[in-house]
Amino acid sequence: MARTNLLFCCLLGIITLFAACNKDDNNDKYHELIRLADLKLQEAIKLAENQPCKPIEEWRIDTLSYRYVPVHPSFEEEYNGLIKEYRNLSEQAYKAYKPGKNDPLVYNTTPAEMAPHFGLRCKEGKMIVANATDLELTEIDQLLDELFPQVVGYFNDVPCTDASKWSIATILKDCEFIQFPISNTPDSRAFRELATKYSHLYQVKKYRTEMDCPSSNANPAKEVICKDGKAILVY
Questions:
Q1: Which of 48, 80, 156, 157 has CA atoms 20 to 30 A from the CA of 26?
Q2: Global pTM?
Q3: Which residues is 227 bridged to in the sheet?
């Protein structure tokens, strides 16, 4: 009986050890595939970032998982090939990872939330996808002036029939808190994109000009009401 128990324990130990080794092998494969995928991604980015300026209308902007990349037809085939390899390796890595019962799913395919871009620019002889920090202050001021009425007035033509479907948004203009009603509609995503652009531009301007703005609104709106089909703020 003791001999049988000993044999059983030995077999159980071998099975457990094999399973652990097999899991380690799978995770080693996962990490190696992730490393190779990242190398391909970095190679594609380096290719795109080291291109001389050509007419802007010839370029397109590609959106990767965490950044924007300028792509020109002169190297697009090579770039697309590298991105294809990157995605294939990433998919293999996803399949290779075998988490244990209590292990986290470390392979995360959720795209990172990226700052807005402001088109293509030629900077220091290279083509880039510009963010707010790449812009001159005069251009930032011009874009802020253009975006402000679009953001504040985005929902002006949306009928207000149920105040519970509205909320209050706040942005800054010349250190003044500007509040306005916004509606939870299918167009709210487009509104958020405009508001995010405005916010990024304003923060860059605030930093560069050392604006000393108040940290809180001294007179915030209390609620939104519907009056004659219009959303109105109550203070």
A1: 80
A2: 0.75
A3: 230
